[in-house]
Amino acid sequence: MIRNTSGEPECIECRLVLIEPHSMRILTTGAAASLLLPRESIPAYSRAAESLTETIERKLGLRTIQLALLPGRVEVGTCAVHEIIGSRKGGPGLLAFTALDDIAAGEFVGEERSIVIKIMKGEAGEFGRFAQLGWIDQLLVKVGSDARRYSWQAIQQLNQGINFCLLSLTDAAGAKMWFKAVGESNVREYGLTMALAQRFPAYLPKILAKIPEWNGWVMEDVRGMPLNQSEGLHDCKQALTALAIMQKEMTASLPSLVRLGARDWTCARIASLLEQFFHDARYAMEGQSSTKSRPLARTELDQLKKDINSALHEFMDGGVPETLVHGDIGHGNTFATSKGPVFLDWAETYIGHPFLSAEHLLADLARSMPVVAEEQAALRFHYAAHWNTCARQAKLARLTAIAPMIAAFAYAVIAWDGNRNRTDPTVAWPFLRSMLRRVRREFELAPVVAI
Questions:
Q1: CATH topology classification for 134-221
Q2: CATH 2.60.40: does it fit domain 227-445?
């Protein structure tokens, strides 16, 4: 592992087990007396499947699918198991393949060799349904596609884990589609995506095939661009309008969202967590070692808790009903197309105040689009106007004014809740300190609006 000057890892070294499925032989390097596994380094925190498949294709001329990433140790790196599904013409010359038993014993650590054998036999169930040779052909059969229509360059894998996979397929005519399957920790995404795609076909990618036994689906490629790469306000307004339309329609269907696994991030739940959150926040501030920013004092945290509690109750009493919330609406998950906005990746689907989604989207866009940063106030009022049947204009203006700080605080609480039961919850402390400072700034900058 290569680390930078601050001690953070920059690259991770991977030992590659590249299996030729017909012969069950493995690509090796080195002399016959010491056959070794190929090695490649990938950027730390990158998606291993995407980085490794691209590197293997570029350097070795082999197209592969990652089957499993085995637990490794820092001193020996990670062991990545891939199936070879094709080769590129004009790539490197003759490659050396050998039987697994002939590879140097030191190339595998602990149980790695026996795990590779289990993967080759299709018996490595502990590594999920995709840790077996030939599963990509099973996918093509389930989709109803003829595998012969697909060349080596038509399958691009972006991510892979235990029972999780994301890849694109392109047929001979150039039509692109995406396959996604979700694992146990995120299985709710399957049901939520299927239900929302059926309810709002204009605003989600078209589902081409459902694979419920894999918690997977195939969807049409979205032809457009991420909203944060758009150049004007028109696309932003369209996205905010579409978001409000979906949210207003779903206010009567909250029980179905709950059954499908949507999480509860209502204002009432956030308010119920204030005491425990600020208890931990005090320790986070006291544990600060950096001198770049001053930690908030206890008196400041106490006042901030009172302000947030008051604002949450204003939200609860504001007349706007809680409903569908896209918890990851930024980060490229909103697309602008010629037919209107499309929302991707509903893994983080919540029930909460609708203004949270609008604020998170605007905050994400403002970071990369100066025009959105300049027109945030107008865009907020554009969105709020869709709720004028629920509250008076003055009330909506007040809710719009306090929405930025409540959205920032909700973001912090959700992150804190996801980390507080981990072995080391302090890893989230720097983020929490930063978010609390932002929440405080938002309160200080909030315009005074009379009701």
A1: Phosphorylase Kinase; domain 1 (3.30.200)
A2: no
- The CATH number of 1-132 is 3.90.79.10
Which residues are CB-neighbours of 35 under 8 A, at least 6 positions away? 28, 29, 96, 98, 102, 103, 104
Q: What residue ranges do the domains of the chain occupy?
A: 1-132, 134-221, 227-445
How many CB atoms neighbour CB 421 within 10 A?
Answer: 7
Q: What DSSP line would sit under 357-405, residue for residue?
A: HHHHHHHHHHHH-HHHHHTHHHHHHHHHGGGTTTS-HHHHHHHHHHHHH
- From 383, 117, 395, select the one nearest 241 (Cα to Cα): 383
DSSP string, 250-318: HTT-HHHHHHHT-EE--HHHHHHTHHHHHHHHHHHHHT----SSPPPPHHHHHHHHHHHHHHHHHHHTS
**AA letter at 121:** K
Element (H, E) at 406: helix 393-419
Q: Which residues pair with 3 in a beta bridge?
A: 9
Q: Tens-of-pLDDT digits for all 451 residues of the chain?
A: 444 444 455 788 899 999 999 999 999 987 767 899 999 988 877 889 999 999 999 999 999 999 999 986 655 679 999 999 988 765 565 688 999 999 998 899 999 999 999 999 999 999 999 999 999 999 988 887 665 555 556 889 999 999 999 999 988 778 899 999 999 889 999 999 999 999 999 999 999 999 999 999 999 999 999 999 987 899 999 999 999 999 999 999 999 999 999 999 999 999 999 999 999 999 999 988 888 888 999 999 999 999 999 999 999 999 999 999 999 998 899 999 999 999 999 999 999 999 999 999 999 999 989 999 999 999 999 999 999 999 999 999 999 999 999 999 999 999 999 888 888 888 888 888 998 998 998 888 776 555 4
List phi, psi (to 5°) of 98: -145, 165
**Six token digits for residue 362:** 């605007």
| Dist CA 236 CA 125 (whole Å) | 45
